[in-house]
Design a protein that fits this description.
The chain has about 90 residues and is mainly alpha-helical. It has one domain. Helices cover about 75% and strands about 5% of the residues. It has three helices and two strands; from the N terminus they run ααββα. It has a two-stranded antiparallel ribbon. The protein is elongated, with a radius of gyration of 18 Å. It starts with 5 loop residues before the first helix and ends in a 6-residue tail after the last helix. The mean pLDDT is about 90. This is DUF4212 domain-containing protein. It holds the Pfam family DUF4212. Keywords: Membrane, Transmembrane, Transmembrane helix.
């Protein structure tokens, strides 16, 4: 990567870290929130014959994690293109 100036590098990493923190917040809410904290409330909702809290703890969080990988990849590609540090 070659940035034009140090300010551009700082801005890039600031946006990168902000993105990572946002995605980690989603990850935390889904895994800890839906799987543990809100499990009792979510268990009142059936999903394919299972309680929703149980489903999130066992399956749903995994699906969300995989989606977060693709979201991160796509958003980082845009960020790289914005700062002209993308791979060809």
């Amino acid at each position: 990567m070659a940035f034009e100036n140090p300010q551009q590098a700082t801005a890039y990493w600031r946006e990168n870290i902000a993105l990572v923190l946002k995605l980690l917040a989603v990850w935390f809410i889904v895994s800890f929130g839906c799987g543990i904290l809100f499990a009792d409330a979510l268990n009142q909702i059936p999903l394919f014959g299972f309680k929703l809290g149980f489903w999130f703890a066992q399956q749903g969080s995994i699906y969300v994690f995989v989606v977060l990988i693709f979201v991160y990849s796509r958003l980082m590609a845009r960020l790289d293109a914005k700062y002209n540090v993308h791979e060809d």
